[in-house]
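Section: Multi-chain targets

For targets with more than one molecule, the full set of components is provided together so that the structure can be written out for the assembly as a whole rather than chain by chain. Components appear in the order listed by the source. The example entry contains two components.
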Amino acid sequence: MFRDAALIAGKDLRLEARARVALNQAAPFALLVLVLFAFALDPDRGVLDRAPPGLYWVAVLFASLLAVQRAFAVESADGVRDGLRLSGLDPAGIFLGKVLAVSVQLLVLEVLLLVGVVVLYDADPGGLALVVPTCLAATVGLAAAGTLYGVLAAGLRVRETILPLLLLPVVAPVLIAATQAFEAGFDDRIGEGWRWLGLLALFAAAYLGLGLLVFDTLLEDG
Amino acid sequence: MSTSPSPRGTSSRGTRWLGGLTLVGMAALLLFALVLSPADAVQEETVRMMYVHVPTAIVAFTAFFVTLAGSIVYLWKRSEWWDVTAHASAELGAVLLGATLVSGMLWGRVTWGVYWTWDARLTTTALLFVFVLGYLAVRRLPIERDRRSRLAAVVGLLLGPTTIVCHYATTWWRTLHQGPTISRLDPQIDGLMLFTLMLGMVVFGLLYAWLLIHRFRVLWLENRIEDLGLDLALEERRREATDGGPLVTTS
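Its structure, encoded as tokens over all components, is:
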């Protein structure tokens, strides 16, 4: 299972390294979201000073939609999905591989965005001991839920519209928890952030577990 | 199903009784809720909102539980019965939860002064509502029925953990920053009020069961029509082939 996961993740990341869709399109999009928020919440009114953690995770959420769609768009052409099904790879391994590849791309994006909020919003990510594990747990949770709904939506004619409708309510707890943990981390109140980190870890574990169970069923359809 | 003479509706003796009982119960509920039960000491007349708000909420959550159970059984046994039950129950649950949200907003406007507050329970309910709308969107996907049922069952299965995580996230989110803003009902609830509330739950439960049976039958018949259409199309193609239609000319 883990060998299969590494194969799939390697394939997806190699594709990304050559096509650079996430880096050239999703990352600028996420940064653009940060800039747009500054227009919406006029920086002079002080709202922007208090908002970076929330804005950061909203941007990540939107970018994760793009990453997930991309992860299954690469399978849709030339019957690759059928090839994947016939390859004899363990479906659970395929799921883990996809999650891993999406996670790595999102983590790169999150580092860029973190620089973005520091530069644009003058945020101070002081409590790195909390910020880094929060990023890791939230990303795995987003990637696991995203992969689950991504494969569900893949191959449908309405995939672009149904994926946000299904995925965003589900990952709303990630937005809440990650934002709260970031607020604690940015304000050097690290102690208050651990329970949120726990919730993020629980979310990630739950969706990883469910994905391992049902990915097989979802991959059958194509 | 197909052997019975073509039915003129989805009702049967049982559902007619159930429907009659529901309507009588509704009338009784109106009587008790609006006339017989006393006004609350604190909330005065607005407390009557409770007799719709609480029962619809509880029955809606029950409906989603049925959907969750139906989804699990469908994934396990691939039974059409459970698939249709899950679908029908989710639709009714969405309607009831919509009623909960609307009645809650109206109630909130008169007691708290705002339609909406970012209380944990409200937020969880709103998210659940959107999530169920997503489930129903999957149910309307224009794809092969088996595949649609499988996708819907997985989404329905995720209803459980999603609701649980949402509940904890929003509860912590709101209790970390501010105390509870809702003035809880007085625990020593008046006897007649308690009775009316219980009556409301029974009546809305009956309403749910009644509509669920009808909705189930409509969905079941829709499936049969779909099968029939497929059979007819196959038959036509076959006849075309055997009658030597224009498609099978061999040179």
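The radius of gyration of chain A is 18 Å.
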